[in-house]
Amino acid sequence: MDEIRRSFDIDAIRADFPILERSIHGKPLVYLDSAASAQKPKQVLDALMSAYQDTYSNVHRGLHFLSEASTDLYEAVRGKTASFIGAASGDEIVLTSGATMALNLIARSWGEPRLQPGDEILISIADHHANIVPWQLVAEKTGAVVRAFPLEQDGTFVMRHLTDMVNDRTRIIAIPHVSNVLGTVFPVAEIAEIAHDANALLVVDGCQGVVHMPVDVRALGADFYVFSAHKLYGPNGVGVLWGRSEILAEMPPFLGGGDMIDRVTIEKTTFAEAPLRFEAGTPAIAETIALGAAIDYVSAIGMDAIRAHEQSVLNYAHQRLSAVEGLNIIGTAPGKSGVVSFTMDCAHPHDISTIIDHEGVAIRAGHHCAQPLMDFLDLSSTGRASVGIYTKPEEFDVLAEALEKVRRIFG
Questions:
Q1: Are residues 292 and 306 in the same domain?
Q2: CATH of the domain at 394
Q3: Residue 376 domain-assigned (yes or no)
Q4: Rounded CA gap, 98 and 175, in Å?
Q5: Which of 32, 106, 115, 410 could form an S-S bond across to 385 if both were Cys, CB 3.0 to 4.6 Å?
Q6: Into how many domains does the chain fold?
Q7: By C-alpha distance, which of 203, 126, 30 is closest to 368?
């Protein structure tokens, strides 16, 4: 990077994101949809373009200069990621196509060979579909059962809701680090102790966690932690699966193909050691290198500084939106992170999103890939404004004013 920032400079950070200079429908862009996918700084865009323009070649297989250069850049990201999340080594980092792929890999490679009829997979009612559906598919094959523990109506996590459901058949507990709808921060370290006392594994969907706060997977005590690059200001098509080395070593491959093998004959194939045995085929080379640039970017600013900034913005957002007549904030757990979900008594979230888009404001509207949570809350959908590293408090003033326009139209 050109500069390692010692303090949080929101104007300098926003200047790093070219798309924030855009106008939408003649209005300055107010991007409040980072929970769905974050925008990309020029440092990441430059790294992506350089990987294609300057060093592009397939990795791990060539002995020529470009292949070796690409391999070095690609593999450096594994170690960089390990340092970023506190993993013991780069050998615990499996590079995938995204968090969804990572969760399916865990379900298929760890869950399917081990689960027995009657075994239980315990999830949160607030889990994203990506941390529900893979477990349902494995349960159908193995005879295991998926059960969900509730939250309080305001989104607060209460430990007894979990412990009341843990029993001697619990094999897996799968939770989000942070709910993508409610913003609830789950106490991962405490849940890890509960899981391990029950001889179960803890799987954490970290997509909304690693982007908002420092993460140390060893301190958290989880067994698996996954996230996607595109929410961490990186490119699409890349994700990370961290798993404890002793667990990864016991798991069979998920997909077969090139680069995950040791020796192939017509009769039999032996496989590479983890993590390569889980990385069949040509990977997203340039995109993975750009993920490394994204990690450099947020690391230079500092995750503690990012969290402090975002929490300040989120607190202002709650205050400002609470003053909008007829607006109800969904999810008010103490210490929440990242998002403000809401409904209005006069309009459907889809109508809200469409109208405020013409004011230049981008939010998400829908079930947010969390239909079981919507059913639990007796809602069909919500609007969701989410914060990122580049979000300013005054952008929620723009959102609030746009919502007043919604009220004038429908009220």
A1: no
A2: 3.90.1150.10
A3: yes
A4: 17
A5: 32
A6: 2
A7: 126
- Catalytic residue numbers, as ranges: 369
* Structural domain containing residue 203: 47-299
Q: Do 51 and 286 touch, CB atoms closer than 8 A?
A: yes
pTM: 0.96
Same domain, 180 and 66: yes
Please check whether residue 81 lies inside any domain of the structure: yes
Report the alpha-carbon distance of residue 273 to residue 254 in Å, rounded.
Answer: 13
What does the pLDDT profile of the chain (411 residues) look like in tens digits? 344 344 689 999 999 999 999 999 999 999 999 999 999 999 999 999 999 999 999 999 889 999 999 999 999 999 999 999 999 999 999 999 999 999 999 999 999 999 999 999 999 999 999 999 999 999 999 999 999 999 999 999 999 999 999 999 999 999 999 999 999 999 999 999 999 999 999 999 999 999 999 999 999 999 999 999 999 999 999 999 999 999 999 999 999 998 898 999 999 999 989 999 999 999 999 999 999 999 999 999 999 999 999 999 999 999 999 999 999 999 999 999 999 999 999 999 999 999 999 999 999 999 999 999 999 999 999 999 999 999 999 999 999 999 999 999 997
